[in-house]
Amino acid sequence: MATWSNFNLQNGASPLMEQMIFFHDHTLIILLMITILVMYLMMNLFFNKFINRFLLEGQMIELIWTILPAITLIFIALPSLRLLYLLDELNNPLITLKSIGHQWYWSYEYSDFKNIEFDSYMINEMDKLNNFRLLDVDNRIILPMNNQIRILVTATDVIHSWTIPSLGVKVDANPGRLNQTNFFINRPGIFFGQCSEICGANHSFMPIVIESISMNNFINWINNYS
């Protein structure tokens, strides 16, 4: 989850989020190199008094400053396309989770198991002393780590968006439409998210909480669920 004075991205809890962080750093380095080069050239232009009275054309320099940006864009586009295809790839999911957005709470259904469905409401900070303000819920999503998870997202009223930053997941929930994505949680923990599509007066008050546990504990939770 996000913490005070953290200006970086959250620690990735899935391979896809780690890849997105790598791509962010890669692109930022390229932007930094371009910024330094442009600033250096501008400072040189400002502080020298060189004059060329006979300069009429510069085909070579125009060729260079056309080709170099094209090559730079290729260095950004190829990793970006690779990542886009990775995000859309679905490899034999172990569990399918259905998420349904409402004004202003989420409903969840575990389609692979019988009679496991529940609503998830934000906890009022006065109800418990140990919860995170505006982030904790009464019913968390329980999922096993180190397994491929598919999530199907829709809504019943207006557009919502199911978003977990540390997993690199953001899926729009549209009424009458079923959107799908997948993720792989590679460590145990509690991961927080929120609706990231403005959906009405209480848009800020429908958080998402995933609790990642071992497969044995997940099977026990399934067996004990009533």
Q: Mind explaining what this structure looks like?
A:
- By secondary structure, the chain is α+β, with helices and mostly antiparallel strands.
- The protein folds into two domains: 13-45 and 58-86, Helix Hairpins (Orthogonal Bundle), CATH 1.10.287.90; 93-222, Cupredoxins -  blue copper proteins (Immunoglobulin-like), CATH 2.60.40.420.
- The protein is built from three helices and ten strands.
- The protein has helices at 15-46, 59-88, 215-224, and strands at residues 95-102, 105-110, 117-120, 141-144, 148-155, 160-164, 169-173, 179-184, 189-195, 208-213.
- A five-stranded mixed β-sheet has the order 3-2-1-5-8, with no helix packed on it.
- The mean pLDDT is 90.
State the fourth-level CATH superfamily of the largest domain: Cupredoxins -  blue copper proteins
Overall CATH class of the largest domain: Mainly Beta
- Biggest sheet, in brief? 5 strands, mixed
Number of separate domains = 2
Find the CATH topology of the largest domain: Immunoglobulin-like
- Structural class by sheet pairing and helices: alpha+beta
How would the blueprint of this fold be written?
Elements (H helix, E strand, L loop, with lengths): L14 H32 L12 H30 L6 E8 L2 E6 L6 E4 L20 E4 L3 E8 L4 E5 L4 E5 L5 E6 L4 E7 L12 E6 L1 H10 L2
Parallel strand pairs: 1-5, 4-10
Antiparallel strand pairs: 1-2, 2-3, 5-8, 6-7, 6-9, 9-10
Pfam families: COX2, COX2_TM
Main location: mitochondrion
InterPro entries: CcO_II, CcO_II-like_C, CcO_II_C, Copper_CuA, Cupredoxin, Cyt_c_oxidase_su2, Cyt_c_oxidase_su2_TM_dom, Cyt_c_oxidase_su2_TM_sf
